[in-house]
Design a protein that fits this description.
about 220 residues; mainly alpha; globular
Length: about 220
């Protein structure tokens, strides 16, 4: 039975990362550094830690993910791999989807490792429905990853692509970041129902995933 093309690309990226562990190691180090520095800057025993914890977690994941997204397409440049992929019968959207799913997996692994460390450093105890975080974090992570994968491909040929990627990604990610931070804060504090912001995240994901899939072919075949 023939596997879908995007699964082939996904398995390839997972195998490469398993051998090198470049993306996960760099993201994990950066995210842990951010969490530790903010825990030293603020008193984690204060009640206000619940107010800032969601923002710190989201920002730590956002900045850490950029290092992996910058490397996502760099591997494809070596030995003209992208040129070879352009000549295959596979649709370009399958390559994008496989790459985005691989990056989503890497960022999720870092978040799962970071979560217990984050709870210990900030003495967190959720006052709301903590199970809702299982929906907020994946939705916010996918919003970051799908746009980041697209703009990383768009800036691939740029001389300063490490600088160009955050300049393109962060302004577009602001609505999803706001929804992710507010939903996380409401879950931790139990002050309000985060349902509206979770729906906003889901809508954001659907819209931008569709746009990226439709436009990626133009970016992929552009020189």
């Amino acid at each position: 039975m023939k596997l879908p093309y995007f699964i082939t690309h996904l398995v390839k990226d997972l195998r490469l990362e398993w051998r090198s562990k470049d993306a996960i190691n760099s993201m994990l180090f950066f995210a842990l550094l951010v969490v530790v520095l903010f825990s030293l800057a603020f008193d984690p025993t204060r009640e206000s830690s619940r107010q800032i914890a969601g923002g710190i977690l989201c920002v730590a994941a956002m900045f850490a993910a950029v290092s992996a997204l910058n490397q996502a397409w760099a591997r494809e440049i070596r030995h003209q791999v992208l040129d070879a992929q352009r000549m295959t019968p596979a649709p370009s959207a399958s390559l994008f989807l496989g790459k985005a799913l691989a990056n989503f997996f890497f960022v999720t692994v870092v978040e799962l490792i970071l979560a217990p460390v984050f709870i210990v450093f900030y003495n967190l105890h959720a006052l709301g429905n903590v199970w809702l975080l299982a929906g907020v974090l994946p939705l916010g992570t996918w919003a970051l990853v799908v746009n980041g994968t697209f703009f990383a491909a768009l800036s691939l040929r740029a001389r300063n692509r490490e600088l160009l990627l955050p300049l393109l990604l962060f302004p577009l990610f602001i609505p999803a970041l706001l929804a992710m931070v507010l939903a996380t804060n409401y879950i931790l504090t139990g002050e309000q129902d985060p349902g509206l912001w979770i729906k906003m995240l889901a809508g954001y994901d659907v819209i931008y995933t569709t746009i990226c899939l439709l436009l990626f072919e133009v970016v992929f075949h552009a020189e």
